[in-house]
Q: What sequence folds into this?
């Protein structure tokens, strides 16, 4: 399993998306709630729910073109006891309704292509109120994904004999033959680690970090022993696996590894015991079976109550630990139906919900707002449940739109040869082994042309880890780079854009930009309208700081702060609020995106991210392939400010032609600042030192005179070419001539034309 040890229990994401109400035949009449006495539409309760009550997203959003049929339906939850009726109008004008006590619903059949309208009526003791009507379109290419009725899921699980987590015998035999060398290597490692086995059986003690470290080593050992037994089901391997499983079962479920004290450790022990039980069950005697089941039942009941109690994850899906635990409870339940009476209700209550939410951190585009590091860790953690659900109850999560598109997100934001990830906690890490292992597992589970190419370019994975050994067999299709793959991509659900000189080239120049509705919540930072630049496998304009732990002094006082990023601050480093300190999400908005073969233009509006401090905070990036970036900022406030344009690098920046130059290895980046006059300064200290990590350099171009507004134009050129930059200020805006283009900047818009 993947250990997100720095994560703390996520708090409620208090944000609401204001969606326009549209007229339709489902619109409320004057006699219905939602319309006032004058016949005017009242406020839509879906966007008027008090922010402390619910963070659940309204899906599908108004105007959405969905890639999955039926789409996922969800909405903000009102108080406990509310009943909801979802009404769906079909393309032929006919309507159907479904009643539920949940703030989500899995529609029971694929929706044919066409235009749909939906609304939800919420009924409380005070009456019924209708939501606004929202529309969405199902295109012909939408992929069916229907969640079966809970009774069907229970029946499927009950009908499959143990081991349910594994493919059927013919497919398992083929998989074992295909990976014989990898299983042999695993067996060698298991035997080599026999001397440390006693330590892995001992119950952990100490602080949370010590408990998690010990537990993860113990469950890894147990999982390896079970897989060695699967490959070689003889008495010796069986005895080794059983011994470790019984040792884990003897740990006190209310002790150091309880859900209340160490939720990830508790989840790991429960899942490992369930997988061991499932694989060993045909050979267990009555006492062994009862011992393992009793331990699993106690632990799983705690996990179930933690994520399903009071509809916690349904109401608060932006709980990164809870959302993963939900999937694990669902997976374990499928393995225990028919063995534990409670497993039926656990499965009914968790699996349909888990399939509806899947990943709350992004939409159908496959994006992940919590950053590339947590995208990898979370995906890696969920691959095993996804494999098991396909084998145990026939649920193919690979058909979910988010899963189908996730490899595309990874390919654009952690491409082959990238020196780091992009944005969020852990973005500075180069996770080569995990990038390769999880990409390969994902590509085999949910293969796409780009995903197969991406996985094939990555190397260094550990072939003995379960994400590799249990992955579906490779489909054998070519892993060539897909023709006509664009070099830039927008992921609208999270407000991120990736721009590359050539995605297929490991020596590419890459520019990343974000202006995200998720703001600074959880593992996201207060860095709306920020950018990152790398080239030739080297980091140049970086996200600074180090992930030395969740909520450490460095994390709070530097790493999450706007001033730690290539973004705008004012008056000595003031920036966007950090959610954990302020309770404000501080969202950005991706306002514009245009991509051509020669250039990409993207604009973000971070005005709301700064709260009441600023009236205007707009940034436009013009990326001219392959090596030139223009950054245009428009800033305004009621009070005068000293505006600051922040820039970070691993090495000290040097003065060059009125600007600065950054060097990392053999790669260079030169920055020229135009527009409002500024003065440059830099330092290599953090406001709070990290637990570990080398110094970095933090530069600031600060305006020389405080003002209520500023317009800054920066030109960044990879390789520091000697060619001059021709610029002039006109009555309408700015005009630049560089890299063979004429770039006109007017009122936040950019016009790009070839020169000559």
A:
């Amino acid at each position: 399993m993947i250990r997100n040890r720095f994560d703390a229990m996520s708090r409620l994401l208090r944000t609401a998306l204001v969606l326009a109400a549209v007229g339709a035949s489902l619109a409320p009449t004057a006699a219905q709630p939602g319309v006032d006495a004058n016949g005017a539409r009242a406020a839509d309760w879906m966007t008027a729910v008090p922010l402390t009550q619910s963070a659940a997203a309204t899906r599908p959003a108004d105007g959405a073109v969905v890639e999955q049929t039926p789409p996922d339906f969800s909405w903000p939850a009102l108080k406990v006891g509310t009943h909801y009726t979802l009404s769906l109008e079909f393309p032929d004008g006919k309507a159907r309704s479904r009643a539920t006590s949940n703030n989500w619903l899995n529609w029971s059949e694929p929706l044919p292509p066409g235009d749909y309208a939906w609304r939800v009526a919420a009924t409380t003791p005070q009456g019924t109120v209708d939501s606004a009507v929202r529309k969405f379109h199902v295109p012909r290419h939408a992929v069916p994904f229907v969640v079966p009725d809970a009774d069907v899921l229970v029946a499927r699980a009950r009908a499959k004999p143990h081991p349910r987590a594994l493919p059927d015998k013919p497919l398992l035999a083929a998989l074992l033959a295909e990976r014989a060398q990898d299983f042999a290597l695993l067996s060698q490692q298991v035997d080599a680690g026999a001397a440390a086995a006693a330590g892995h059986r001992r119950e952990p003690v100490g602080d949370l970090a010590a408990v998690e470290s010990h537990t993860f080593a113990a469950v890894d050992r147990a999982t390896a022993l079970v897989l060695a037994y699967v490959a070689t089901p003889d008495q010796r391997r069986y005895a080794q696996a059983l011994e470790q499983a019984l040792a884990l079962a003897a740990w006190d479920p209310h002790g150091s590894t309880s859900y209340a004290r160490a939720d990830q450790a508790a989840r790991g022990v429960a899942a490992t015991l369930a997988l061991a039980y499932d694989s060993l069950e045909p050979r267990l005697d009555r006492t062994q079976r009862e011992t393992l089941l009793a331990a699993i039942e106690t632990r799983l009941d705690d996990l179930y109550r933690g994520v399903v109690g009071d509809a916690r994850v349904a109401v608060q899906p932006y709980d990164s630990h809870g959302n993963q635990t939900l999937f694990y409870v669902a997976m374990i339940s499928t393995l225990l139906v028919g063995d534990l009476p409670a497993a039926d209700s656990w499965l009914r209550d968790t699996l349909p919900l888990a399939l509806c939410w899947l990943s709350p951190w992004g939409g159908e585009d496959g994006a992940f707002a919590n950053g590339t590091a947590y995208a990898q860790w979370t995906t890696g953690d969920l691959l095993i449940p996804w494999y098991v659900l396909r084998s145990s109850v026939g649920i193919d999560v690979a058909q979910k739109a988010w899963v189908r598109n996730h490899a595309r997100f990874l390919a654009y934001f952690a491409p082959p040869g990238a020196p780091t990830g992009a944005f969020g906690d852990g973005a500075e890490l180069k996770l080569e082994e995990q990038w390769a292992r999880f990409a390969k597992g994902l590509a085999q589970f949910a293969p796409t042309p780009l995903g197969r190419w991406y996985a094939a370019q990555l190397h260094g994975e550990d072939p003995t880890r379960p994400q590799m050994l249990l992955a579906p067999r490779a489909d054998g299709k070519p892993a060539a780079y897909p023709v006509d793959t664009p070099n830039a991509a927008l992921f609208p659900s999270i407000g991120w854009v990736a721009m590359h000189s050539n995605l297929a080239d490991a020596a590419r120049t890459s520019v990343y930009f974000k202006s995200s509705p998720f703001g600074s919540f959880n593992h996201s930072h207060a860095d709306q309208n920020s950018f990152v630049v790398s080239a030739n496998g080297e980091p140049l304009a970086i996200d600074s700081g180090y992930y030395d732990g969740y909520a450490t002094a460095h994390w709070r006082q530097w790493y999450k702060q706007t001033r730690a990023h290539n973004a705008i601050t004012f008056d000595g480093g003031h920036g966007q609020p950090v959610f954990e300190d302020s309770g404000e999400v501080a969202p950005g908005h991706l306002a514009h995106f245009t991509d051509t073969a020669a250039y990409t233009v993207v604009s973000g509006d971070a005005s709301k991210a700064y709260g009441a401090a600023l009236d205007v905070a707009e940034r436009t990036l013009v990326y001219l392939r392959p090596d030139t970036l223009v950054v245009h900022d428009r800033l305004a406030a009621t009070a005068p400010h000293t505006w600051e344009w922040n820039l970070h690098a691993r090495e000290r920046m040097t003065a060059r032609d009125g600007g600065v130059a950054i060097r990392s290895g053999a790669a260079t980046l030169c920055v020229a600042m135009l527009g409002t006059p500024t003065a440059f300064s830099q330092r290599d200290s953090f406001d709070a030192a990290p637990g570990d990590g080398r110094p970095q350099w933090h530069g600031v171009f600060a305006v020389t005179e405080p003002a209520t507004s500023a317009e800054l134009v920066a030109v960044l050129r990879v390789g520091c070419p000697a060619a001059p930059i021709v610029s002039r200020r006109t009555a309408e805006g700015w005009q630049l001539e560089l890299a063979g283009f004429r770039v006109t900047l007017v009122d936040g818009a950019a016009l790009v034309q070839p020169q000559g």
